[in-house]
Amino acid sequence: MQLAVFNRSLALDRVGGDEDLLREVAQLFLQEYPSLMGQIEDAVARADAGRVMETAHTMKGSLATLGAEAGTQIAFQLESMGRHRTLSGSHETCQALAEQLTELKSELQKVAAGA
């Protein structure tokens, strides 16, 4: 089973069916995620397992709220790598997360615009 880049019905469920709130959450995420992704990439590059765990956990929560199932799973993988201090493969996982975020961005831009 393939996980969704963006599951709109799940996202709406997570915000109590409030379209306006979903739009606001999408707008906020679009503003904030580049900085958070940069922090994750920096932590991976520095092999800072604790920081990888913390930043990936934050990203996971945001992605889960947005119904970004595939991104949530990848962020969870990074969080687990950090928690277990086994960062082997974290560069590739980080790249996979960045790719998911690129796909998610185009979907969220539509939501943020009210589409």
Keywords:
single chain; 115 residues; mainly alpha; 5 helices
- What is the CA–CA distance across the termini? 27 Å
In the CATH classification, which architecture applies?
Up-down Bundle
Please mark out the parts with pLDDT under 50 across 5 or more consecutive residues, or reply none.
none
Proportion of strand residues? under 5%
How many strands, what sense, and barrel or not for the largest sheet? none
Annotated CATH topology? Four Helix Bundle (Hemerythrin (Met), subunit A)
Q: Count helical runs.
A: 5
What's the shape?
Answer: elongated
Order of helices and strands: HHHHH
Task: Provide the residue-averaged pLDDT.
Answer: 95
| Count of separate structural domains | 1
Q: Which CATH class is shown? A: Mainly Alpha
Quickly give the structural class: mainly alpha
Rg over alpha carbons: 14 Å
Number of strands: 0
Describe this entry's structure for a reader.
With 115 residues, the chain is an all-alpha fold. It has a single domain (8-110), classed as Four Helix Bundle (Hemerythrin (Met), subunit A) (Up-down Bundle), CATH 1.20.120. The protein has 5 helices and no strands. The protein has helices at residues 8-14, 19-45, 49-65, 69-83, 90-112. Helix 2 (19-45) runs antiparallel to helix 3. The chain is elongated, with a radius of gyration of 14 Å. The mean pLDDT is 95.
